[in-house]
Amino acid sequence: MSDEELAKDLGLLSAITIGIGTMIGAGIFVLPGTAVARAGPLAAATFVIGGVTALFTALSASELGTAMPKSGGAYFYVNRALGPLFGSISGWANWLGLAFASAFYMYGFGEYVNQLVGAPALALGPMTISAAQTIGLIGAALFIAINYVGAKETGGLQIVIVVTLLGILGLFTVVGLLNADLESLRPIAPEGTTSEVLPVTAIVFVSYLGFVQITSVAEEIKDPGRNLPLAVIGSVVIVTIVYALFLVVLLAAVPNELVANNETAVVDAAELLFGQYSVFGIGLGRLGWALLLLGGLLATASSANASILSSSRINFAMGREKIISPSVNEIHQRFGTPFKSILITGALIIGFLLFGNLELLSTAGSVLHLIVYGLLNIALIVMREAEPAEYDPDFEVPLYPFVPIIGAISSFALIAYIEPFVILLSAGLVVFAGAWYLLYARQHVESAGVFVNWILERSEEMPDAAVTAADSVRPDAVRAATGTDGGDFRVMVPLANPRTETELITLAGAIAKQRDGTVHAVHIVQVPDQTPLERGAEQTERIDAESQKLLEQAREDAETFGADVETHTVLSHRSFKEIFDAARTFDADQVVMGWGPTAHGRAESRLDELTHDLPCDFLVLKDRGFDPEHILLPTAGGPDSVLGADVVRLLRAEFDSRVTLLHAVGEDESREEGEQFLEEWGAENGLSDADLIVDDRDVDTAIADAATDATLLVIGATETGLLSRLVRGSLVLDVLDDVECSVLLAERARKRTLRERLLGLRKDE
Predict the structure, then answer these.
(1) Of 81, 137, 374, 679, which is most buried, counting CB atoms within 10 Å of its CB?
(2) Cα-based angle 405, 410, 411 (whole degrees, multiple of 5)
(3) What angle do CA 641, 647, 653 make, to 5 degrees?
(4) CA distances from residue 358 to 24, 55, 263 in whole angstroms, order as listed
(5) Is 165:23 a contact under the CB 8 Å cutoff?
(6) CA–CA separation, 626 vs 714, rounded Å?
(7) What are the mean pLDDT values of the chain's consecutive 10-residue runs (765 residues total)?
């Protein structure tokens, strides 16, 4: 399959707990010891600064997520906006950053479990594995298995973990407040700690990875336009408040020396605080110890659980976009999960656990994500400025462009405070990701990205260096399609009905041959909305067999014209609308589709409603036996008629067709003016040798009469908009009822304003 989508299983509570569950673990239960040792009481401020920094990116992620609720989150947005070169960098950084973070969380999990069991280190030849690592490996295997089973089970587990965890933290905070002494926080900034604030912020930023990971499962969130911003922004705000309050209470209630450099500090603090109380003469110290130990286990476990879920989706999305092998897209027939992605991610986590330590794992995760977050903010700016037709977010960032600019600068700036070795390691990954794109992915990906296209569309206005750079990084397929590497005009044919396949491929093959182009035959298989895609995936073998048969016939038909042909199968809930997404995905120059109730192109009302902003030129064939022997082309001018003339010239060159041009004289136009218009129009469009008919009757009658001798009617799409079609009907539909030959509707790609969509008027009318 070229594209498979995931069922929408996650509600608001599941989504927000993925974010909170990922963030709350490392922030409270693993990193306070390191933060307090270096920054003293200012450790609380480092978490607040991290939260505010994260909030800028959370706002940008929310807008991008509601505009493009696709699996892969930040990677997908960067790839779509900045192109596959930066998509490769962000994908690898996000994926490996989460794998590093997951290993870090499981290492912390091992530390807390070891508080209970006191396991010894394990010697494996020359390698010694600590007890925390051994336990972390077991935990990692468990959570990889949970994610393998499915997102619904993961979301349910997150809710239980996070609600229990917040209850434990709330109880600790209450007890801490009863024993807090704010004077113990003085001096707030001991000597030498002020300079450590930003370096410590960079270290603890790993605590804020969860919010963007919500967008990684956006494709599985119910009502993403509402639930995704609430989950992303809400999780950052909630966690920042929890961090600040908890750390202030912790440092005000127990000596800082107890916390500093203690990887399980909150457990020892709880034992001390709860030990001041007793019930029936029995001290509660061990109860506090047990509760916070349980909290530490839940926190680190939920962080790892959510990170594994999100990282596997990024891997899945990279495969879908062909940055890595599409074979990772395979959906488990029973569980409906991208099981290969999960297993690959799991192997990385286990490897990092074996060879890493707490500080390396946490800082590597932070740097890689700061790179992604900086690119994500830039991606938002690109989408806003380029204004692609499909970009229509339900949520918009306030105070644009200041929010994404501050988000990008702050994200990149924090990297400077990480230790040089980790920066060098991360820089090596960026170089690897760039090389990976140039040496592998560039040959496979099929979309250049909004930014590259935006630059090339304005090549005359842009500096030569910018145009050259944009062209040099385009995917090979896109460069070929736009003529950079010898020219390759792309004609996409959505196929559904084997009975109409031959006629559509014949038309597309003739056009592709004349333009020295390629036919892209696409079989879009629709799964009903009521059926989750994982259930549809159970029928993959049947779908593959049907697609193979249909597409193989299409290949044979196209090759009879000497045209190159590529075939694709797409599994989607959206059979008709997927045509427009596929046209963008394959960078089609033209789409040739069928017109009728059994084909994808039910061109009457549905085509009119959905194609107010066409991604490319569309040709819609109402087939009554495709025969281009005698082609009738009515025209009153306009871009759609020009497109019709382009197609007619190609068909005439291929089939030696006879061509007739028709112009129906308007009420304010004389017959002589009509004849002059038709002669000039034919000459301008390379059809000066065509037969000419000028008719002073109404348009419908003129076309119907002239079409009695024609075998194919090529007509430009109506210029009227939605309201005028509803009130007055459509010229195209009236003509279709009156002629007996095949009809080819031609519509040029262009953007329409809301006024044009509703009233069918141009700006100058």
Answers:
(1) 81
(2) 100
(3) 135
(4) 17, 26, 10
(5) no
(6) 12
(7) 49 77 71 83 89 93 84 81 92 88 85 79 73 85 80 58 82 86 78 84 82 71 82 90 87 82 79 82 82 83 74 75 80 76 86 81 87 94 87 89 95 90 92 92 84 81 81 70 56 78 84 84 68 48 60 73 76 68 80 64 40 72 86 87 89 91 86 89 88 89 90 75 38 68 83 48 43
